[in-house]
Amino acid sequence: MTEKIQKKLSDSKGARWAALAVVAFTMLCGYFLTDVMSPLKPMLESELLWSSTDYGIFTSAYGWFNVFLLMLIFGGMILDKMGVRFTGFNACLLMLVGCGIKYYAISDYFAMDGLIILGMKAQVAIAAFGYAIFGVGVEIAGITVSKIIVKWFKGKELALAMGLEMATARIGTMLAMSVSVPFAKYFNSVSAPILLCFIMLCIGLIAFIVYIFMDRKLDASLTDADKDAEEPFRVKDIFLIITNKGFWLIALLCVLFYSAVFPFLKYATDLMVNKYAVDPELAGIIPSLLPLGTLFLTPFFGNLYDRKGKGATIMIIGACMLIGVHLLFALPLLNQWWFATIIMIILGVAFSLVPSAMWPSVPKIIPENQLGTAYALIFWVQNWGLMGVPALIGWVLDRYCKLEGDGPAYDYTLPMIIFTGFGVLALVVALMLKAEDKKKGYGLEKPNIK
Ligand SMILES: C[C@H](NC(=O)[C@@H](N)CCCCN)C(=O)O
After folding, report:
1. Can you tell me where the transmembrane regions are (predicted)?
2. Separation between Cα atoms, residue 273 and residue 169, nearest integer Å
3. Residue 117 bridge partners (DSSP)
4. What are residue 20's DSSP bridge partners?
5. Which of 61, 135, 389, 397 fits as disulfide partner to 128, beta carbons 3.0 to 4.6 Å?
């Protein structure tokens, strides 16, 4: 009699890559809205009379609820308790609600001109409120998708899969950077790109519903032994996570590195206009090259990590490149568009190296049943930077960098020195992480494929 060996659905290559494609698409839609306003900064200033500080406040709202209301941490606990289907679906709904509120605030329907809410212009406050709700949704969707990828790819092409997910999501950033201004100009409305995002988010929600069916099938294919191996999450596990030094080094590296990239992207278009004298209508194209480069390189470096290891070293190289690039943006040399383009591409390489090694390293430090909470805690620490740094840069620009006359509106030297500082600190933490790996034997320098 032949005994049938039960295979998990994730053992099928086709099934696991299909699951990845579906959830990665949902993230693409989320990243589109995250960055859609960045190239619109000059239009917000000229048409809606926002200042750099208004823009900085609005941008920092992304992290308000995640950081102060601990929404990300609750989201991680809900994820580990209730599972990926429930959490992911509700995260998509939050993204839609947040986007809807933000659209209302920026659109012509908005009718509270002249009003002040908590010291902010009503329009800025309501757009920020919507963005804050969206921020909760997209961040919880992000940790859910990380956990989904571990569920399907652990012991297989984990870093490649995470790299491909990030690459797909960055298509959303790239679209935001390159199409927002032409789209807004075509429809003669700053809010038109946000409406487009709303439609995309509806499609992203449908994609996640498709994933829910795939996840049900995966669970049905698990044997009793697989299910027994899954230890339930207990609240006291949080203590185990936060007393782990490796966890804190990853979280610190994450906040420092990402503080020098995502908030930089929010101002990159404005930097191109002010420092490199690029036409505002085309200025978003140069920053859009950053995510473009990561499309190919994040999966490439992820694959390298899967097969050859060297995760900690990859993070160190990425941090060094980040410092070099921001320093070149800060220095008063070669204020030409082609030079900005070259260094933006190099930043894209750095932005592929660190994430491709950092996120797949977390499951080497933290057990799978605590992963949702661990990713949530890392994102929570990161959100302090995503929230604080854009507000800081907006304030610094208004206070110290304003220029008089008909030329550029701002001198970007000081903001770029601040970004360089984050790079230096990220490098120090990456070196400490490599030393800790040597001491504790996490296996960060070892390949992921067993
Ligand atoms: C995977 C990682 N995601 C994040 O860092 C999110 N917390 C922030 C998403 C912000 C989107 N512009 C990444 O994208 O590298």
Report:
1. 14-33, 55-79, 86-105, 125-146, 158-184, 190-213, 246-265, 285-305, 312-331, 337-362, 374-397, 412-433
2. 26
3. 120
4. none
5. 61
Q: What is the ipTM of this complex?
A: 0.95
For the chain, the structural domain boundaries read 10-440
Instruction: Indicate whether this model's pTM tops 0.90.
Output: no
Half-sphere exposure (CA, 13 Å, Cβ side) for 162? 30
In the block, which residue shows the tokens 């799978």?
368
The candidate with the shortest Cα–Cα distance to 415, out of 326, 297, 336, 312, is: 326
User: How far apart (Å, rounded) are the C-alpha atoms in residues 276 and 339?
Assistant: 9
Q: Whose CA is nearest to atom 6 of ligand 1?
A: 139
C-alpha 151/C-alpha 309 separation (Å) is 21
pLDDT tens-place string over residues 142-174? 999 999 998 999 888 888 999 899 999 999 988
Q: For the domain with range 10-440, which CATH number is right: 1.20.1250.20, 3.30.200.20, 3.40.470.10, 3.40.50.11060?
A: 1.20.1250.20
| Tokens representing residue 272 in the block | 């191109």
Distance, CA of 43 to CA of 185 (rounded, Å)? 10
Nearest residue (by CA) to ligand 1, atom 5, is: 379
Question: pLDDT per residue over 107-135, tens digit each?
Answer: 988 777 777 888 888 999 999 999 999 99
Q: Tell me the CA–centroid distance for residue 142 and ligand 1, in Å.
A: 7
